[in-house]
């Protein structure tokens, strides 16, 4: 029998529903290695990964890029959409072509979507708005701004309300412009943890893959949980989970690389990003 490793690996869990399939059947108590699960919004998980107080986490794609020298991506895990994502939404008082030259309130809960919006507005739509960061409260946002960006469960709940706002899905807008998929979140490991505790990382990765596969084969438990906790209908949640992609194949990688390229060109990232993916035996460099 394999010896249990006492060293604890701290693993970050995104609270938002879009990551539920990867975490739903992930049970640290069933692992041979010691794992502590930390559940937070993306911004806090990103910060903890960057400062080193988590070893493994789901991360906003942009935060991964900011600290890419310290991280490796875990294989075949992401939250991506090849078109509409349904939970990254810009709400505006006027049509999009007018709103992009006004004032836009940005959610303070994730960097990926904020910077995707800036790329779309400035490179695609040629807008020149003023931005400010806000708590994710749409009513308060639109008291001060012409448009407000919400993500995750805040965006989903706001989309159910008949508030008369124009609603733009950033995943759909990205697909219309680039033809590519968009990856909003990735799973990453800090390099020192991957090198010093590879057996634990391997077990965690395989447990994530197993959870993802079981969840997507049988969505009913996730759908029921979402209806109880957030509201909405079974039909809505079945469509929502079925629409998202949790893999990280070549199509998702290409879309993410393009996003990073545009972010670098706008000065949102300080250097160009080359994706690096962890594996059991070696560090795999994408497209090398």
TrEMBL record:
Keywords: Lyase, Menaquinone biosynthesis. It comes from the Bacteria. The keyword Cell inner membrane does not apply. This is Chorismate dehydratase. Belongs to the MqnA/MqnD family. MqnA subfamily. Pathway: Quinol/quinone metabolism; menaquinone biosynthesis. Its EC number is 4.2.1.151. The gene is mqnA. The keyword Plastid does not apply. It is an enzyme of class 4 (lyase).
């Amino acid at each position: 029998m394999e010896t249990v490793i006492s060293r604890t690996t701290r693993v970050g869990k995104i609270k938002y529903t879009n990551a539920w399939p990867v975490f739903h059947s992930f049970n640290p108590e069933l692992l041979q290695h010691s794992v502590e699960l930390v559940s937070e919004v993306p911004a806090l998980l990103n910060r903890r990964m960057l400062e080193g107080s988590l070893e493994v986490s789901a991360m906003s794609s942009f935060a991964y890029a900011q600290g890419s020298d310290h991280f490796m991506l875990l294989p075949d895990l992401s939250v991506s959409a090849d078109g509409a994502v349904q939970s990254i939404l810009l709400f505006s008082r006027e049509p999009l072509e007018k709103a992009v030259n006004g004032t836009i309130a940005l959610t303070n809960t994730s960097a990926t979507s904020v910077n995707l919006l800036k790329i779309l507005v400035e490179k695609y739509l040629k807008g020149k708005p003023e931005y400010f960061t806000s708590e994710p409260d749409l009513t308060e946002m639109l008291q001060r701004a012409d448009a407000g960006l919400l993500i995750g469960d805040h965006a989903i709940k706001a989309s159910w309300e008949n508030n008369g706002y124009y609603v733009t899905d950033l995943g759909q807008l990205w697909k219309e412009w680039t033809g590519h998929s968009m990856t909003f979140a990735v799973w990453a490991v800090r390099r020192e943890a991957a090198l010093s505790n590879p057996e634990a990382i391997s077990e965690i990765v395989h447990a994530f893959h197993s959870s993802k596969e079981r969840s997507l084969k049988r969505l009913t438990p996730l759908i029921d949980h979402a209806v109880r906790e957030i509201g909405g209908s079974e039909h809505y949640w079945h469509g929502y989970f079925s629409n998202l992609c949790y893999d990280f194949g070549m199509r998702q990688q290409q879309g993410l690389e393009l996003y990073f390229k545009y972010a670098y060109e706008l000065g949102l990232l300080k250097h160009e990003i080359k994706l690096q993916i962890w594996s059991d035996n070696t560090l795999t460099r994408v497209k090398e």
